[in-house]
Amino acid sequence: MLKELKTGFLMMVALTVITGLLYPAIITSVAQVAFPDQANGSLVTVNGHVVGSRLIGQAFTKPEYFHPRPSNAGSGYDGTSSGGSQLGPTSAKLFNGTTKIDDKTKTEVVDFDGLKDRVVHYCLDNGLAFDSSQPLDAFKDAKGDLDDVKLIKAFNDPKNPLVVTPRTPLPADAVTGSASGLDPDISPANADLQAARVAKARGVSVDQVKAAIAQHTEGRTLGVLGEPHVNVLELNLSLDQQFSRK
Predict the structure, then answer these.
(1) Which of 51, 79, 96, 244 could, after both became Cys, cross-link 155 (CB 3.0–4.6 A)?
(2) Which structural domain, as residue segments, surrounds residue 166?
C-alpha cells in the first residue's frame, strides 16, 4: 500500500511541476519572445502612458470622438463582467427598454435602455433626421434634456406607443452590443454616420475625418472571416494627433 501511495505522490509532484510550472513558464517565455505585444494585452500607449487595449472597447462620449457600440458588460466595457444582454429578437425589453425604482432614491430610473431609446439618442447625437409619432418635447425634463424614463415608458405604452423611425438606415452595431460587450471595433458605416459630428467638434472638414476612417478600416480576417471594421481607440488617438479639438 505504501508503495502505491509513494507512486501516486511522486506522480502528483511530477505533474504539478510539469503542468503547473514548466509548461506555463515555457509558453510564457515563447509568447514574450515571439508575440510580446499580444502576450501583454495589445496595450496602446501614448507618451509612455497606457490608454487602453486594442482588444477591449472603452466608453467615448464627447462629440469630438467616435463612439463605440453599446456595451452590456457590467457598467460598460468591464472585462470582469463580459457578456451580452441575453435578450432575444422577440423580447419587448430589448426593443422598448425597462425602468425600475432605485432602492436608495426611491425614484424611477432606467433599468435597460432598449434599442428604440438608443436609436433616438444616436440620431440626435449625429444630426440624423427621423420621424416620430409624437413630439419629443413631451419627453424632456425640467432642464430641457430628453428624459429616458419618459421615453421608455412611452415606448411601452400599450395603447399609444411612441414610434421613432430614422430616415437613414442605421447599421446594427450603432444600437446593439456585442456578445462579449467588449467589442473595440465599429463598422465603417457606423463611423461614416458619426463623421459629421466629429468633424464639427474638431473644426475640420468631413472629408478629412472620412479619410482618417478609411486609413483605419481593416478588412476581413484572412480575407473571408468577419466584416470590415474600424478600431475606435486607434481612430480617436489618430484624430487627436492630426486635429486638435475645437
Answers:
(1) 96
(2) 87-176
